[in-house]
Amino acid sequence: MIVLGLLAVFMSFTTGIGVSVLLGGVLVGGGFAYFAYAFAAPSDVEVLWRFLIGFLYVFGGFYLLASPQLSLKPLTFLAAAIVFIEALLELIIFSQLRPQPGSGWILCDGVATLFLAYLILRSWPSSSTWAIGFLVGIKFVVSGVTRLMYSWTAHQRLKSMA
């Protein structure tokens, strides 16, 4: 995670385009899955709704694939919102793991993630050309380091008990 994170930070625009294209492909695949799912619907109304949802997925996915640069603005906002929610969840996890040795690293991850969300949302939409790649990269680095340190602390604790 650490190495991939550093690569994503140094190639943030390319990473952002890659995330946009990947998401577009996932949406197109999901749309075609909805089309197939429509044939299993018990009523004509459900068939229609499933086809409409599938169409929206395919349309949105092809939009992302056709113009990944234009889609970076809404994706940046969405990514920052997701990172903000992730930060809150990390802080909740910390509150549950607080008695464990090394749990401070989880707190560090949550605080750093919260700060990243703030930085991106503060400068949005001008941050759209670099933010997704930078966010993904920094998040990978911070998560990699914190998980490494948490695991190392747990390993040291087990060694001392043996």
Helix content: over 70%
Biggest pleated sheet:
none
Quote the average pLDDT: 83
Topology pattern, helix = H, strand = E: HHHHHH
How big a fraction of the residues is strand?
under 5%
Task: Give the termini separation.
Answer: 30 Å
Derived from helix and strand composition plus strand pairing, the structural class reads mainly alpha
Unreliable stretches: none
Radius of gyration: 20 Å
Overall geometry: globular
User: What's the number of extended β-strand segments?
Assistant: 0
Count helical runs. 6
What is the strand and helix layout of this fold?
Elements: H1 2-10, H2 12-38, H3 44-66, H4 72-97, H5 104-123, H6 131-161
Structural account:
The protein is an all-alpha fold. 84% of the residues lie in helices and 0% in strands. It contains six helices and no strands. It has helices at 2-10, 12-38, 44-66, 72-97, 104-123, 131-161. The radius of gyration is 20 Å and the shape is globular. It starts with a helix and ends with a helix. The relative contact order is 0.18. The mean pLDDT is 83.
Summarize this entry quickly.
This protein is mostly helical and 162 residues long. It has helices at residues 2-10, 12-38, 44-66, 72-97, 104-123, 131-161. Helix 1 (2-10) packs antiparallel against helix 6 (131-161) and helix 2 (12-38) runs antiparallel to helix 3.
